[in-house]
Amino acid sequence: MSLRDKIRNEDKRREARDLFGQFGVNSNPYPPSAQNTNNPHFRSAADEEVEARVIGFLHDHRSQVVVIQGTQGVGKTNLLNFWEKEIEEALGDAEGYYVIRYLADPEASFDGTIRRLFQELGLEHIHKLSIKLAQDDSPIEIARMPDMRVALHTLAAKPTENERLSQLFRDWLLGFRLLKAHREELGVQFRLDTVEAKTSALRDMVLVSSKAGILEGVFLLLDELEKQDGVLGPTAVVRYLSALRAIIDALPNHLFMMLAVTPDAMLRYSEALPAFRSRLQNQILLKPLESVADATALANFYLTEARRVAALERAGKKAGNKPLVSAAVIAELFGRLHREAERRGDTGVRQREFLHGMHNAAEVVIQAK
What would the pLDDT profile of 158-189 be if each residue is shown by its tens digit? Predict the structure, then answer.
């Protein structure tokens, strides 16, 4: 029998079994290890800590750096995904806030992150700033860079050329090649071609925008910071961390930075640049699953979420509540994974590994003849 025929037969078998009628789900509720986006988020004590820090930042706008530490597979990406959405929903239509999620690239500099920050601010923000400064240009004096002050005064003085000047200003911030138009129309003389220059420009933009009343806060969520370790050489890593530290130091207000990193990488980064560790004392630890009860709670949560979604999609139809994976299978799976974890020196079972095992266990039931 060809693969095509087998797939068709499997589709017919699944339809005949009616997963919704038996188990209350439309498909396998447990994600395989390769699926790390669009997964439900099982709240833990770590979420309470993050929530408290977000609320504190929204009240006083004082910059905070929150470090999410955990080994690979314990849910760091899932947590950042969840809080990106939570913050955006909480802010609603509130203006002046920017939520930026960035996956750390293994580059030899911090250029990519700063460039993303400027891109998120975008032309609309520059338009708003130029209009505000045309009404009152006093916030410009906060800027330290001479080129920044000149460029902002130009924007404020020529509101009729807003679109053209805003594009030139944005390209200058992004570090593009300095053209004749930048010098003659915008008034800038030097290209932002170093991390230090871009960091200074970012500081000026944030502070001037805040003083002008169009920026309240920037949420920067950096994931997989450990990718820098082992890919870059020691010198490049120190430069990267130094640039990250420079942004933290440059913005005592209006920045909420959340970093996800493994403990091993954090230890090596601290040894490479001790001053970096001193900025990262606000740490939240994500733990692996330590008991069958923990594993069962996680499994039940994913099943409940899948049933909730399925019920909404199949309103009016009778849903089944038969367990998809039995308690005995969950206990056996956790025990096996826990023994494997102990052999490699881990203290518990990583959530990603457990959910992948649950996915396979559920597939056995789903594909049963």
Answer: 866 778 899 999 999 998 998 999 999 999 99
Strand arrangement of the beta sheet that strand 217-223 belongs to: 97-103, 217-223, 255-261, 64-69, 283-285
What single-letter DSSP state applies at residue 349? B
**Residue pair 298/354 in contact by the 8 Å Cβ criterion:** yes
CA-to-CA separations, 61 to 86, 125, 212, 275, in angstroms, rounded: 18, 19, 15, 24
Short-list 155, 124, 152, CA closest to 140: 152
Buried b (16+ CB within 10 A) or exposed e, 66-79: bbbbbbebbbbbbb
Q: Say if residues 111 and 194 touch (Cβ distance below 8 Å).
A: no
Cα torsion 84, 86, 89, 91: sign: negative
* 245 and 209 Cβ atoms separated by less than 8 Å: no
> What predicted TM-score, i.e. pTM, was given to this entire model?
0.86
Query: Which residue type is seen at 187?
Result: G
Say which residue the tokens 């404020």 belong to: 156
Count other C-beta atoms under 10 Å from residue 58's C-beta: 17
Q: What is the pLDDT of residue 256?
A: 94
